[in-house]
Specification:
single chain, about 170 residues, alpha+beta, two-stranded antiparallel sheet, about 30% strand
Length: about 170
């Protein structure tokens, strides 16, 4: 057997002897404003301050997913360290992307419905504006006058309806 084949065989054997790098656990204590939770594995061992994400540095970058208390998660070890993070979630309480400075995601259909109701109101006002008439100077006495009213000489354009596909990012759904 060549050295190359021996190295491959040794590598395969080493993979079979590794400790578990992931395990199933239940979320015991949830800290919504922190970057960690406490979990208990199926054997009853409690693990404190398990990271919600694999990032080593704290901050606002990345995605922080907060699981529901009592939900099942898969916990993964970071390399050969004692640091653990949640790699899979069965139920999510909250997701914060890059610090959440832009607020919550838009409920797109509700937004489109409200905007289109506003468009309808604006278009009604535009129609009324475009069809109204103005009195003009007339001739005659105070008792008997003649003359006509003039129509509006300028017209306003109607507002266009909002379309969901113009604003929706289909890569992020909730």
């Amino acid at each position: 057997m060549s050295q190359y084949e021996q190295d491959i065989l040794n590598g395969i054997r080493a993979l079979g002897k590794q400790d578990d790098s992931s395990f199933i656990a239940v979320v015991e204590n949830n800290y919504p404003d922190k970057d960690y939770v406490d979990v208990k594995d199926l054997a009853g061992t409690q693990y404190l301050e398990v990271r919600k994400r694999a990032a080593i540095e704290s901050g606002t970058d990345g995605i922080i997913i907060t699981p529901v208390t009592g939900s099942t998660v898969i916990v993964t070890r970071i390399g050969k360290s004692d640091e653990l993070f949640i790699s899979m979630f069965s139920a999510v309480d909250r997701v914060v992307i890059d610090g959440g400075e832009y607020g919550g995601l838009i409920k797109i259909q509700e937004q489109i419905n409200k905007l289109n109701a506003l468009v309808k109101t604006v278009n009604t006002l535009i129609q009324q504006y475009n069809s109204h008439t103005h009195p003009v100077a007339t001739t005659g006495s105070a008792v008997a006058q003649t003359g006509t009213a003039s129509a509006t000489t300028m017209t306003a354009q109607t507002a266009q309806e909002f379309k969901r596909e113009d604003y929706e990012n289909e890569k992020v759904k909730h």
